[in-house]
Amino acid sequence: MKVHSQNFKVRLGLFIAIGIFIFVVAIFLIGKQKNLFNPVYTLNTTFYNVGGLQVGNKVRFSGINVGTVDAVRIINDSTVSVTMFIKKDVQKFIKTNSEISIGSEGLIGDKLLQISQGTSNANFAKDGSSLVSNEPIEMDEIFASLKITAENAELITDELAEIMISINSGEGTLGRLINDPKIAENLSQTMSNLKSSSKGLDENMEAAKENFLLRGYFNRKEKAEEKAKKKAEEKKEKIRKEEERKAEEAKKKKN
Question: Are 87 and 120 in a shared domain?
């Protein structure tokens, strides 16, 4: 009986020790999440819709966890107040014109608050300051927009399919152009005629240059082109010499 009593006491002691250990670990984890063991200060903001944000969600600044959501309260039918606990050591980075937006960890992860970087000339946000918020974009709105886009894409695809069927059937101007061999032959003949006309025009121009009545005009034109070309080369040479002179002066100053 005595041995049984001692075993009971040992088991009871182990049970109590394990319970105390679990309690201490739970207090530590909760305290760490709530920043109870770090010096903190509070910041406030308001939203029209918090999009599922809850107490205990993370607060990030520049992608780093700097605090937690302390309270989410409904002020009226169009305003929800959010209070945050922020680590004291990041107070020197958060400005009064920083903005707060609601994000999420991954595509369907927990909600979190993101604090943007303010401008360098703004003052630092003090304990109890209220910051401007950006309203979150609801997933329902995104899905609704994607649905409309998909429906429009389907409609366009159907219309393109009908157009291609009409073209392959030889309907319409484009269909006749593609499927009618006579039209294709006429186009080929037209291109040949244009090519012949272009060749004849070149021959006429060469003949005109040999005509003594027009020879002076073409000579003046060639001289003007040569003069313009020479002027461009002189300008280019002048720029090159100027660059060499500047480079030489810079080299002398350096020495």
Answer: yes
Judge if 88 and 50 occupy the same domain: yes
pLDDT of 226 reads: 84
CA pair distance 100, 58, nearest whole angstrom: 13
> Considering its fold, how many domains does the chain have in total?
2
Calpha distance 70→57 (Å, rounded): 8
* pLDDT, mean of residues 54-78: 90
Q: Are residues 47 and 102 in the same domain?
A: yes
Q: Give the count of beta carbons closer than 10 Å to the beta carbon of residue 250.
A: 10
User: Facing residues of 69 across strands?
Assistant: 84
- Residue 104 φ/ψ, nearest 5 degrees: -150, 155
- Residue 115: per-residue pLDDT: 92
- Ramachandran assignment for 79, one of left (phi > 0), alpha (psi -120 to 50 degrees), beta (any other): beta
Rounded to 10 degrees, what is the CA torsion of 25, 31, 37, 41? 170
CA dihedral 181, 183, 188, 193 (to 10 degrees): 150
Return the minimum-mean-pLDDT range out of 106-115, 162-171, 213-222: 213-222
Structure tokens at 140: 């329902």
End-to-end CA distance of the chain: 104
Spatial neighbors of 188 by CB under 8 A, at least 6 apart, are none
The structure's pTM equals 0.45
Within 180-211, where are the H helices? Answer: 181-210
Is the backbone of residue 62 left (phi > 0), alpha (psi -120 to 50) or beta? left
